[in-house]
């Protein structure tokens, strides 16, 4: 990342980066535990923590700094950070408890966070639209995944 991205870094950027790193490490630890003593949904939890909790969060919370005119209002950034992480914790808890209703609550929180990220991406400028469009396509893909996951939670044998 170039200097301009990190010049825009706020305390939320560092919180997104730190939380992302912690969740990637946690996913690795869950994978190690699951390989030694497999448990229900262990592989799913490990992958979810790494990919959704870690990688997606880093993209959403930090990569936005490279957009032409991101909205970095503290209230919006705080809401994104809180909704994303609490929503992920609720989804994982719901999966481990085989509770489709809990997964849906967490999914709603994730969708709220994704709406915040879409808003926080700022306006699309004609001369620099590519990065904002890619950012929003990723958000749409994640939103579709959240919706599909919530539907699957209702159709699973434990749901």
Uncertain residue segments? none
Q: Decide which structural class fits the backbone.
A: mainly alpha
- What's the SSE pattern? HHHHHH
Termini gap? 42 Å
Shape: globular
- Mean model confidence by pLDDT: 91
Number of strands: 0
Number of helix segments?
6
What profile does the largest beta sheet have? none
Tally of discrete structural domains: 1
Percentage beta strand: under 5%
- Could you estimate the helical fraction of the residues in percent? over 70%
Radius of gyration: 16 Å
Topology (elements, then pairings):
Layout (H helix, E strand, L loop, with lengths): L2 H5 L3 H26 L5 H21 L11 H23 L3 H21 L9 H26 L4
Helix pairs in contact: 2-3, 2-4, 3-4, 4-5, 5-6
């Amino acid at each position: 990342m170039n200097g301009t991205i990190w010049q825009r870094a706020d305390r939320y950027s560092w919180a997104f980066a730190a939380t992302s790193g912690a969740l990637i490490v946690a996913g690795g630890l869950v994978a190690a535990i699951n390989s030694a003593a497999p448990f229900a949904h262990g592989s799913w939890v490990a992958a979810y923590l790494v990919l959704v909790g870690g990688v997606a969060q880093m993209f959403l919370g930090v990569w936005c700094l490279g957009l032409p005119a991101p909205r970095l209002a503290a209230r919006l950034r705080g809401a994104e950070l809180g909704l994303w992480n609490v929503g992920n914790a609720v989804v994982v808890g719901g999966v481990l408890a085989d509770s489709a209703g809990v997964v849906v609550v967490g999914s709603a929180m994730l969708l709220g966070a994704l709406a915040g990220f879409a808003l926080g991406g700022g306006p699309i400028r004609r001369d620099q639209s590519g990065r904002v469009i890619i950012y929003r396509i990723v958000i749409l893909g994640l939103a579709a995944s959240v919706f599909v996951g919530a539907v699957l939670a209702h159709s699973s044998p434990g749901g």
